[in-house]
Amino acid sequence: MSFNAMPYGPLGLVALESSRELGEKVDYHLKQKRLLKVDESESFLVTTDAIRFSNGEGKVRLEETARGKDIYILCDVGNYSCTYDMFGMTHFMGPDEHFQDIKRTISAIGGKARRVTVIMPMLYESRQHKRKGRESLDCALALQELERLGVKDIYTFDVHDPNVHNAIPLSTFENLYPTYEIVKSFIKQEDLVIDKTKMITISPDTGAMDRAIYYSSVMGLDIGLFYKRRDYTTVVKGKNPIVQHEYIGKDVEGMDVLIVDDMIASGESIFDIATELKKRKAKRIFAATTFALFTEGIKKFDEFYEKGLIDRVYSTNLTYLPPEAKSAEWFREVDMSEFLATVIDYINRDKSISPLIDATESIKKLVRE
To answer: Which long-range contacts (CB under 8 A, 24 or more apart) does 298-301 make?
Structure first.
């Protein structure tokens, strides 16, 4: 056996309640990679029990030992479906409570693991990554806290600003992208002609321009940009409201459009852009995103789909997706469990994950085929 293929230690996967479903899928693929029986008798999952007291206090208990294991803690800090009873009322967990459970899990391990790696697909407080005036630096503080607790490796997806790694320069901080899986799902499920005369990639704002440039270059398409004009004199729900979307780019008449972004929150930007594109006589409109949060529900997405303003939304299962969205005609879920299992398998064997990070050639081959 090659020394590069020797495991760092016995693999243990801790899928917290927020990532239970995704964790079970990752475990399934890990068992396939390690040629284990794909049943419940063998599993890489380390069972945990998150206990909540009636006043809201909590603790995490490990149901089996983590001694000597290479532990991977998987947590979806954006899962708003997790609940517990507090003072007789149902309380929905937020990002702060999910992050606290990560720390509780590390504390329960108690330094017995050979290595602890945290996988947060949606990075905790990633929007609060830099200071503008008198405000907190939540993301940097959280990363430093994990480092102090003994976490050496942190893996996340499509982080708002990768420069937040500067907060923990001596620790591993890997920012992964689901581009290949999204493009593969998009191409396989849609009847497309991927040609710059038939299709165009659109960036919904200047912040997403790098992502859109990457999509357009690997797919051989042209790119367009919508610039958000905001009213900086007022603040609504923590942000300056958008006054108008200004378009910069080639004519989209008769063309299929792919809008790419890291996140869909309420969806207002997508709705405004889709409306503007339809005014310019665009043909079909698709949206691809890493995280679909649907913070204000899916009713308006249903309405835009019925009116023919949006054809499809592609998003990963890296964060919680409500059942009504998963079953909607306009929505397509991109499963990332096999990719995550591959990443964990590589790390556990101390193999470089560079081939997984750069999917350029794989996407180009996919487009050609």
So the answer is: 298/322, 298/324, 298/325, 298/328, 298/331, 300/267, 300/271, 301/267, 301/325, 301/328, 301/330, 301/331
Yes or no: say if 72 and 13 are a contact pair by the CB < 8 Å rule.
Answer: yes
Q: What CATH number corresponds to the domain at position 170?
A: 3.40.50.2020
Phi, psi of 229 (to 5 degrees): -90, 120
And the tokens for 330?
A: 């306009």
- Residue matched to tokens 């990075």: 123
* Residue 358 falls inside a structural domain: no
Residues 201-215 have pLDDT tens digits of: 999 887 788 888 999
Residue 168 lies in a domain: yes
- The per-residue pLDDT for range 8-33, each reduced to its tens digit, is 889 999 999 999 999 999 999 999 98
- By residue range, what is the domain housing residue 37? 3-177+337-353
Range with the lowest mean pLDDT among 36-40, 111-115, 194-198, 347-351?
A: 36-40
Q: What is the 3-state secondary structure (H, E, C) of 134-180?
A: CCCCHHHHHHHHHHHCCCCEEEEECCCCHHHHHHCCCCEEEEECCHH
